[in-house]
Amino acid sequence: MFELGNLIKAIYSWLEGLFASWGIPHFWLDILSMFIVFGMIVAFISIAALFLVWWERKVSAHMQVRFGPMRTGWHGWRQTIIDAIKLIMKEDIVPTKVDKPVFVIAPIVVFVSALMVYVCIPFGRGLIVKDLNIGILYILAITTFTVVGLLMAGFGSNNKYALLGGLRSAAQIVSYEVPLTLSVLGVVLLAQSLSMVTIVTSQAQVWDWFIFRQPIGFLVYLTAAVAEVNRTPFDIPEAEQELVAGYNVEYSGMKFAMFFFAEYTNLFTISAVSTTLFLGGWNGPWLPSWMWFLGKTFFVILVIMWFKWTYPRMRVDQLMGFAWKFLLPLAFLNLILTGLFA
Amino acid sequence: MSDYPKSEFPERKTDKDHISNMIDPLGKNPERVVEKIDTEEFIVNMGPQHPSTHGVCRLLLKMDGEVILDLVPYVGYLHRSMEKIAENRTYLQYMPLTDRIDYVSAMFCNHVFCLAVEKLAQIEVPERAEYIRVIVDELNRIASHLVWLGTFALDLGAITPFLYCFREREKILDLLEMVCGQRMTFNYMRFGGVSRDLPPEFIPQAREFVQYFKPRVDEYEYILTDNPIFLGRTKGVGILDQKTAIDYSVTGPNLRATGLKWDLRTEEPYSIYDRFEFDIPTGTNSDTWDRYMVRIQEMRQANRIVEQALESIPEGEIKTKTPAVFKPPAGEVYARIESTRGEMGFYIVSDGSTKPYRLKIRTASFSNLAVLPEMSRGWKIADIVAIFASLDVIMPDVDR
Predict the structure, then answer these.
(1) Across the A/B interface, how many CB contacts are shorter than 8 Å?
(2) Which of A113, A342, B56, B294 could disulfide-link to B48, CB 3.0 to 4.6 Å?
(3) Segment (H or E) for A85
(4) For residue B71, what are the contacts with CB-CB under 8 A and spacing of at least 6?
């Protein structure tokens, strides 16, 4: 009853009828729905990112015997909205010595690549923008694109800390991309498809969820994904205590907000992808599919936040060693086992 | 460090040699920049404003990628001429200023100044005052170590222990505030005793804190000690061998972490430390992890001392009367104390007037910071942060 997919389908067919009766070509309906869907996705991501920032602050506060924001609304729910408005209204500073085009484009690159992933995230039954037949491959390709933006930011800032941060993030993301992709391959082997919807539908029952058939794969994916989004214990590119703020040290105002926004959007993305790949996506009893999807995703996000507020940060060489000497062999082992027994 | 400033005072504006050897940050000297880019190494100016230099220390790092080739700590940003000011103040007027030397463990600064003046003027301290001094000293030691533990974990990227430590520190500060009305700059001790007696509710609350604190240390250990990432960041990192430590006159937990059992509380017992039973924790590998472990255990031992002192504190006077115009006899004296960071000493030369003729302060942080370059060569920039934090340097303590 509360399936949003059906609702959207109904609205679309109603619009189709309307357009037919007015005699407008179908092409214009496609254009219109494209814009509407884009707006919906951007609105959803914005709300999700704002919520995640607030949630992270509350989660961390309660783990650290504090309250977190309390003054703005009920338990400070307006806090991040106010923060976002503040960041947007701040003066947009471009330092004199930066490489201006690179400096200005970098946050856009990061932001757009964070946004493009949402083309094939299945939010619920029928709630996917485009079910590409190479869905997961597309997502992996687009998420890696972030590194270009970070490198641009680090290089364009003309700042040593930023440069170190940019180089670190490049090394890190490229390294962790390999075990990440290999861990995803196990799921692809089992589902025999790259399409996100097919992957979800092949885990219809709880015991079919790939987390039970791919436990090693799930752990490798989660670890590598945390490294992909630069969060503790793998947050060396923006290690505050070493590099002050890493690649975004020279950014302020709206440009900084875009990095920040992209960071939380990516956090949501990796959690959504791990839900889709390993936790059965939208499948679940009683509740509507999109609620199951969001619930599982936020659970994964909570686990990732839990990492952040518990662990210290690794060192850059330990991080590389961990990726190449531990995660990669483990991912290969998982792939071989999957190939043999599945 | 061949292409580094050769002058003795490279901070001087007039020191052209120094300026031309640095990469010109404002780009006024473009040829020089190009010349420097040809080489692989680069110089990073870490501080004075940097999240992990604990105040205003500036570290000049010569780096090859992420690896530190050489490091020079620049100090002096917090210099307040403490020693010169003393020459223009009466002895008692100088007492509040001693709080500002090492504001994280101000009780020790009070105590050592009192010790020096008492030694000079031959003042006897009543027994109850000695007990009070030991109690507040050791409470302050715990509070200071908590600040250290929190910031150390923070520098390694673990944010949560910081808040845990400050939760307990808050209780200690409440206790100390109860005693002297101040939370950090106590100005509590006087020549011949302390400024006021313990309030009646202090002892029960302090006993409660002692019991409360015991399991808390286990909690810190639980979140850090055996954590593989923490071990990876600290085990074997920043080794300071015993000989270097002694050569640089490193003292305190940093020296004890090298395995040398040197603590002025037992080596040269001042106050009434010979009446209490406590252990001197030492390390074996003299790495960052050992320095962490020594301090963790020192917190337990300090708690033990407070517990014993609270049990046996006698009633009685809290201060020997000193004349209103206090004139110690002419002469010179050196008194030292085991502060949180190591040996802290006051050297006073008196000419028999109301003001010291000369006053020299020996602080542990200065020597502890001086040894940093010896420990950091060859480590990564992330390790510098860990090593620097593990030394527990307080910048006002370095600069005075």
Answers:
(1) 82
(2) B56
(3) helix A79-89
(4) B59, B60, B61, B62, B372, B373, B376, B377, B384
Measured in angstroms, the CA of B212 and the nearest CA of chain A are apart by 16
- Cα-Cα end-to-end distance for chain B: 27
pLDDT at B30 over 50: no
User: B57 and B88, same structural domain?
Assistant: no
Mean pLDDT of the A280-309 span: 85
pLDDT in tens, B309-330: 888 888 888 888 888 888 888 8
Cβ contact A97–B27 (<8 Å): yes
| pLDDT at residue B365 greater than cutoff 50 | yes
Q: Which domain holds residue B58?
A: 42-72
Measured CA to CA, the distance from residue A230 to residue A223 in angstroms comes to 11
Torsion of CA B152, B155, B159, B162, to 10 degrees: 30
- For residues B63 and B86, state if they share a domain: no
- Residue at B118 is within a domain: yes
Which one, of A333, A339, A336, lies nearest residue A220 by Cα? A333
The answer on pLDDT for B18 being more than 60 is no
Q: Is residue A131 classed exposed, middle or buried when 0-12, 13-18 and 19+ CB atoms within 10 A define those classes?
A: middle
Please judge whether B167 and A65 are an interchain contact, meaning their C-beta atoms are less than 8 angstroms apart: yes
Q: Which of B27, B50, B156 sits opposite A312 (nearest CB)?
A: B156
Instruction: Check which CATH number belongs to the domain holding B140 and give it.
Output: 1.10.645.10
User: Are residues B130 and B65 located together in one domain of the fold?
Assistant: no
pLDDT averaged over every residue in chain B: 83
Nearest to A241 among B44, B163, B385 (CB): B385
How much is the average pLDDT of B265-284?
Answer: 86
Residue by residue, what is the 3-state secondary structure of B173-232? HHHHHHHHCCCCCCCCEECCEECCCCCCCHHHHHHHHHHHHHHHHHHHHHHHCCCHHHHH
Is B274 within 8 Å of B363 (Cβ atoms)?
no
In this prediction, residue B24 has a pLDDT band, given cuts at 50, 70 and 90, of very low
The verdict on B54 and B114 lying in the same domain is no
| CA separation for the pair A111, B274 (Å, rounded) | 65
Under a CB-based contact definition with an 8 Å cutoff, are residues A200 and A283 in contact? yes
With an 8 Å Cβ cutoff, are A232 and B44 in contact?
A: no
Taking the CA of residue A170 and the nearest CA in chain B, the distance in Å comes to 14
Helices (H), A192-252: 196-201, 210-213, 215-228, 240-243
Asked if residue B394 belongs to a domain, the reply is yes
Q: Looking at the complex, does the CB of residue B37 fall below 8 Å from at least one CB of chain A? A: no
Domain end, chosen from B51, B72, B93, is at: B72
pLDDT score for B40: 61
For A297-308, write each residue's pLDDT tens digit: 999 999 988 888
Let me know how long chain A is: 342
Total structural domains within chain B: 2
Q: What count of Cα atoms within 13 Å lies in the side-chain half-sphere of residue A29?
A: 16
Q: What is the pTM of this model?
A: 0.81
- What are the chain B neighbours of A160 within 8 Å (beta carbons)? 42, 44
| Cβ–Cβ below 8 Å for A316 and B52 | no
